[in-house]
UniProtKB/TrEMBL annotation:
Organism field: viral metagenome
Segments of skewed composition (Low complexity): 661-677
Region spans: Disordered: 1-33, 287-315, 645-684
UniProt biased composition (Basic and acidic residues): 293-309
Protein name per Swiss-Prot or TrEMBL: Portal protein
Length: 684
């Protein structure tokens, strides 16, 4: 890590002082007068055309994602995706939603049961290796516990995307601001000078001529001494909606391996100007002449299109596209520019450089208008992570519960609405009448209405049979199939079905649920969380100042932190275990305790302390204070204690001989405890 004075004032999302971000102060004859990017206007246009074509292809490939999201969104909000017949009622039962909430609730109660979110996945017993891994673990937990990170809210939002749509995406960044503030004031004395004549003054205000009879007058001057103060220095991350992220179509195991990844965000002009120095934006003056039109938030908060647009918004809102990926570029002086000519052809011998490109369009239905950012990435790895629910064979976006249960939810809604319509038809009387009988087509029925007929056969009632039992049976069948698909027990809120069903069925469902939830947890851990933790540490390694690291970890722990380590992490073991597994492990540790405690060995207390710590971890954070209160585990101290007291390794005194049962009769026959209790109960 660099020293603090070597780090520029602002670094967030790539160092803004890096020459690849801020263009040098040079003039180019061929550069457009209004553009503040030192690249010819025709080159900018060719670059924008190429990026627009790439974006169009990416949006076309993303239509399946948009369709899947809309379907899942409607299922969650009880909106029917289709209505086969106009005469049907339009009711959607929240069968999928109830199971989805149960699944999310199970994850939250497990993952957030501990305030320590991360645990090392370390197999080494080297003390130095363990200390370095603990330093990385402590840093991660501190970052995730930051109240301004909104970790719980973001993870629940992410998991909702993952479980329902199959995948979710987190994008990281870095926020850093260092300002110069006054540290203290230095005082120094200077000879007073007459402002008119420039002569030195004596303390009586007269010109200072003779030092033998006069005393010089001194003025005290205070000069401020400045220091660098870190205002903010931390990694950031947020969840991006799936429909706002465009990726190259090839199958990849990580977003870092994609040819390109494009993030779509709505930003106000004032926000873009505020980020200009940090992100290295240019060409923002072009946006003053633009008039964005169209609905905002079409893919997110205004998905249903029911929110009205403000007629005259005080600020202009644009759609920004942020492209991460390799792009042909060449280095000019100390900056990178796109290696593309005015005809849109890439230059021969151009270097493929990991670049971050920003371009703007007015609204979703418009086309990109201006390039506002082009720089070489300063990140070691792309700060982005994809989480998967289930792994697909050919689609790296995976499979979600929404896709699995989509047709079942449609069948549930259709079955219920047809059954409801049939019940309505059976309850409401319908008639058939003889033609030319004179009976009116609209017949009023009721206790006060009499229909006059010449022939009783002129008007007859349709007999429509209702079948609520069949509708209910079909509904239960479909819901059972959905239970099989999601491996949930919604009758008991996701808990083991030991009260709502028979013991055998409950045990089978509970086992199936544990297997499925265990697989999903492993997918989240190995595919998502491991890379997420790596992303946060990489951001810290790339940009965090040493002073910030010392403040977060303490100087001693910070000295153990090694940026080049490649640790593997996992959510805490307590977070991934259900109650039955915890109780089983506690019983196992208690058995080990019983076998270890009688052993007289200097290392016995150390082993017991490890067993005790494992039990307390499984018991939860409310008992965490007990973890540090246990036996002395220094072998030399324990051995000396044994020699001095003759006690066991745990420090307990040796057991004395058991006292004989008391005498109870004149013969002095010993009585055992059960017999004593019986005689006592019988009063002798």
């Amino acid at each position: 890590m660099a020293e603090m004075m070597d780090i520029p004032a602002n670094i967030g999302n790539d160092n803004p002082q890096d020459p690849a971000i801020l263009p040098p102060d040079i003039e180019t004859a061929d550069t457009d007068e209004k553009s503040d990017w030192q690249v010819e206007e025709r080159i900018q246009k060719a670059l924008l055309d190429h990026l627009s074509t790439e974006l169009d292809v990416a949006k076309k490939n993303n239509e399946k994602v948009n369709e899947n999201f809309k379907t899942v969104y409607n299922m969650i909000h009880s909106i029917r995706n289709r209505k086969p017949n106009e005469w049907e009622s339009d009711i959607s039962l929240p069968e999928f939603l109830s199971r989805l909430i149960t699944k999310i609730g199970g994850f939250c109660t497990q993952y957030f049961a501990s305030t320590d979110y991360v645990e090392n996945d370390l197999e080494s017993d080297d003390p130095k290796d363990i200390a370095e891994a603990k330093a990385a673990k402590k840093l991660l937990n501190i970052l995730l516990k930051d109240p301004d990170a909104y970790y719980y809210h973001k993870i629940v939002r992410l998991i909702t995307f993952v479980f329902s749509s199959g995948y979710g995406i987190i994008k990281g960044g870095y926020s850093q601001r260092v300002e110069q503030v006054i540290s203290h004031m230095n005082q120094k004395s200077e000879l007073a000078v007459d402002p008119d004549t420039g002569d030195y003054l004596a303390d009586d205000g007269m010109p200072f001529r003779d030092p033998t009879v006069q005393r010089a007058k001194f003025n005290t001057i205070e000069e401020p001494v400045y220091k660098d103060q870190i205002m903010i220095d931390k990694p950031t991350f947020d969840v991006y909606p799936n429909q706002s992220v465009y990726m190259s179509p090839e199958y990849c195991y990580s977003l870092n391996d994609k040819e390109y990844v494009i993030f779509e965000t709505e930003k106000k002009l004032s926000q873009l100007r505020g980020e200009a120095s940090e992100m290295g934006y240019f060409n923002l003056d072009f946006l003053d002449d633009e008039t964005p039109e169209g609905q905002r938030g079409e893919k997110t908060y205004n998905e249903e299109g029911k929110l009205k647009e403000q007629p005259q918004p005080p600020e202009k809102t644009f759609v920004e596209y942020e492209r991460w990926g390799t792009y042909p570029a060449r280095q000019e002086d100390d900056r990178y520019v796109p290696a593309i000519d005015a005809q849109g052809k890439f230059e021969e011998g151009a270097e493929l450089v990991e670049c971050v490109i920003h371009y703007i369009q007015d609204r979703e239905k418009d086309t990109p208008r201006h390039i506002i950012g082009f720089r070489k990435s300063k990140h070691t790895r792309r700060p982005m992570v994809k989480f998967l629910c289930y792994v697909d064979m050919v689609d790296d976006n995976g499979i979600g519960d929404g896709e699995i249960n989509r047709e079942l939810q449609i069948a549930v809604d259709d079955n219920f609405n047809i059954g409801a319509y049939r019940t309505t038809m059976a309850a409401m009387p319908s008639f058939k009448g003889k033609k030319f009988s004179g009976v009116p087509e609209k017949v009023k029925t009721g206790p006060q209405h009499v229909t006059m007929l010449e022939n009783m056969n002129d008007l007859e009632q349709w007999i429509i049979a209702d079948n609520p039992q069949g509708t209910g049976y079909q509904h239960n069948l479909l819901c059972t199939r959905m239970d099989f698909a999601m491996a949930t027990s919604p009758q008991t809120g996701g808990m083991p079905a030991d009260r709502a069903e028979t013991a055998t069925v409950g045990a089978i469902n509970n086992q199936r649920q544990n297997i499925r939830s265990g697989m999903v947890n492993m997918n989240l851990n190995f595919i998502g969380f491991n890379e997420f933790y790596r992303m946060l540490l990489t951001l810290c390694n790339d940009f965090m100042l040493p002073e910030t690291l010392n403040d977060l970890l303490g100087k001693e722990v910070a000295m153990e932190y090694k940026p080049k380590r490649k640790d593997r992490f996992r959510p805490t073991s307590q977070a991934l275990e259900n109650d039955e597994s915890k109780q089983f492990n506690i019983k196992t540790l208690q058995g080990l305790w019983g076998m270890t405690a009688p052993i007289q060995n200097p290392n016995t207390p150390k082993v017991l302390n490890m067993i005790w710590a494992g039990i307390v971890d499984l018991m939860g954070t409310q008992h965490a204070a007990l973890k540090s209160v246990m036996f002395e585990d220094d072998p030399e101290t324990v051995l000396l204690y044994q020699l001095a007291t003759g006690s066991k390794g745990t420090g307990t005194p040796p057991a004395g001989p058991q006292a004989a049962p008391p005498m109870s009769n004149q013969q002095g026959t010993p009585q055992r405890q059960p017999e004593q209790q019986m005689r006592s109960a019988a009063n002798g």
